[in-house]
Amino acid sequence: MSWRISALLRETLLNLRANGTRTAFLFVGATLVFGSLAFAELRVASDLLAFQRSLVAGGGYVAIASGQEGVQAAGCAALAGQRGTVSSGGLRSRGQVTFATQPGVLFQAAGVTEGVLRVWDPSWRVPAASGAALVLGRAAATELGVRPGLPVTEVGERPTVTSVVETMQRNPQAGRWVLDVVPASGRVDECWVEFEPSAYEAGLASLSAQLTDGSVEAVTRPYLRQGEFARDPADELRDRPQRLGWLVTAALLTGIFALAAWFRRTELGLYIALGTPRSALALSFAFETWVVCVLAWAAALLWAAAFARVFDYSLTPGALRLAVVTSGSSALLVAAAAPLLCPLLARGSLAALLKDR
Amino acid sequence: MSIRLVGITHSYGPGTRVLRDLSLVVPPGETVALTGPSGSGKTTLLAIIGLLTEPSAGRVLFDGVPARQRGASLDRIRAEMFGWVFQTANALARRTAVDNAALGLLIRGYGHVEARTRARAALDAVGVGHLAQKEARLLSGGELQRVCIARALAARPRFILADEPTGQLDHATTLEVIEALLERRPAGTGVILATHDLEVAGRCARIVRIVDGRLVEEAR
User: Fold this and answer.
1) Using CB atoms, which residue from B77, B92, B107 is nearest to A3?
2) CA A255 from chain center: how many Å?
3) Helices and strands in chain B, H and E counts
4) How many Cβ atoms sit within 10 Å of the Cβ of residue A286?
């Protein structure tokens, strides 16, 4: 018969409490290391994720496909259902129109599928329309002095403005356009596609092949042309040096825990001499490490978040997730590796361990 | 339970042979003093008897059976058969006296409450019950040694192995500690102690003298 688990865990907690200075040293050390890692992640991630958000908002992951005879509207709309695609839709120009309230002022008119309106304005929602309906760009609506729900008299027609689409960020010139929402059939002049950031490169590369119809080849281009020195936040996030920080910090902390255990060789020797199996000793040491690591990790996240607030970093869910995952990986590695050192340190002659000072 | 050593030889490396073909029988409940000059091999012999060190050659038999053939791990045999009192009073320095005295019982699988109850009784038996809640590092050498004796007694082992338990104590404290060790032990518990002190050795039923790793003399 050997240690009861409950007694062993209680003994471990009593040891942690009794050796308050050592416990506090390990806790503070682990908190500082985990916290520094989490803070570094929050700093980098908050910067890159903010940049990525602005790039997404500005159409950084939008591509346009066109062809001499246009592209198939149905094929364009179908892209929206593919993995990695946010939205897609076609645009067909239909010349210029004028309105009775602004005689002589010409507005560009176009037929668009719903998908293209979502590419231009991700917040745009399909309105409940009835009868002849128009969607206006913000600038056109301002010039005409109308808002959704009001009728406008187009020459020869009297349609209702169903919504105003905000295109300033992703297609500013469409601000003065008058748009009919049309079904995805026939051919369209341009196909607009927005990809997820991670799927953008591959999506852009395969877009032409997906929209080429027989001998009519589709030509694709990114909405924002990226120069040689353009930054790609997705790449930067993936290649950030902090991503390996969890390994470095885990090695550092495991070393600190090992050093603390090194000074306890006599204690380890006493437990073993009195009949404690090395497995029980390892469990006790593991439990001790876990308690310190979990508490230190929680404290580290709190202080990292508090410091991030002080420095005005945006604590987005994405940045917090990175900080939690990276520092948590480090904590897990320490919790797994440090207890293994205990039996290693307690190897060799017990008599020598007991004499050790 | 009796202990029988047969042809024990041990060395810590080439040219450092500390025990040479030593044989000894210790019946159940007997008190034996191992004496001899420094470096004669007393501590090593205790470590071999207590299963802390494996001899280079020879056999240690418990009731005629080698430890490894007794159907239990060495840790378990060590916990159930031996209580230890070391020269330097090895204890958990920042834990209380009662925590230290309960350690052997906890290792043997006792629950926390029962272990502490028995540990308190053992501390009372050796005269340091009033120090139960004091941290070990704050005790004097004699007090701490008695706590270690209480730790050994509380677990009711077959043998208490004591390595120079009074080596760092004054004469008066030495007598108190030896009395606690020899007179307060449970019936049937033997004591094997290594000592330089002939007065201490004289309190044991049997004295074994070791010189240069050989058993040279036995006296009763």
Assistant:
1) B107
2) 33
3) 7, 10
4) 17
pTM: 0.72
> CA-based Rg of chain B, rounded to a whole angstrom?
17
- Classify each residue of B73-96 as buried b or exposed e, where b means 16 or more C-beta atoms within 10 Å of its C-beta: eebbbbbbbbbbbbbbbbbbbbbb
Mark yes or no for CB contact A274/B110 under 8 Å.
no
| Contact (CB, 8 A) for B8 and B21 | yes
SS3 A150: coil
**Region for A40 from its dihedrals, namely left if φ exceeds 0, alpha if ψ lies in -120 to 50, beta otherwise:** alpha
DSSP B134: S
CB atoms within 10 A of CB A49: 19
Q: What residue spans define the domains of chain B? A: 3-219
**Chain A residues with CB-CB distance to B78 below 8 A:** 273-275
| Cβ <8 Å between A4 and B111 | yes
Closest Cα partner for B52 from B70, B78, B76? Answer: B78
Neighbours of A227 (CB within 10 A): 6
**Strand ranges in chain A using DSSP code E only, listed in sequence order:** 62-72, 85-99, 102-112, 133-137, 160-165, 177-181, 187-195, 219-222
What's residue A131's pLDDT? 58
Structure tokens at B26: 């210790």
Question: Residue A162 — very low, low, confident or very high, per pLDDT cuts 50/70/90?
Answer: confident
For chain A, percent of residues with pLDDT exceeding 70: 95
Decide if B168 touches A, using CB distance below 8 A: no
| pLDDT score of A120 more than 90 | yes
CA dist list (Å): A128 to A77, A122, A177, A323: 20, 18, 20, 43
Query: Looking at the complex, does the CB of residue A329 fall below 8 Å from at least one CB of chain B?
Result: no
The C-alpha atoms of residue A206 and residue A215 are separated, in whole angstroms, by: 17
Tell me the CATH number of domain B3-219, given options 3.10.150.10, 3.30.360.10, 3.30.365.10, 3.40.50.300. 3.40.50.300
- Give the model's pLDDT for residue A357: 43
Backbone angles phi, psi at A216, to 5 degrees: -90, 105
Stronger pLDDT, A247 or A146, i.e. the higher one: A247
- What count of other Cβ atoms lies within 10 Å of the Cβ of residue A231? 12
Q: Which residues in chain B have their CB less than 8 angstroms from residue A284's CB?
A: none
Instruction: Supply the pLDDT for residue A339.
Output: 80
Residues B133-178 have pLDDT tens digits of 999 999 998 899 999 999 999 999 999 999 988 887 889 889 988 9
pLDDT digits (tens, 9 = 90+) for A271-316: 988 989 888 888 898 999 999 999 999 999 999 999 999 988 878 8
Which string of b and e fits B137-170 if b means at least 16 CB within 10 Å?
A: eebebbbbbbbbbbbbbbbbbbbbbbbbbbbebe
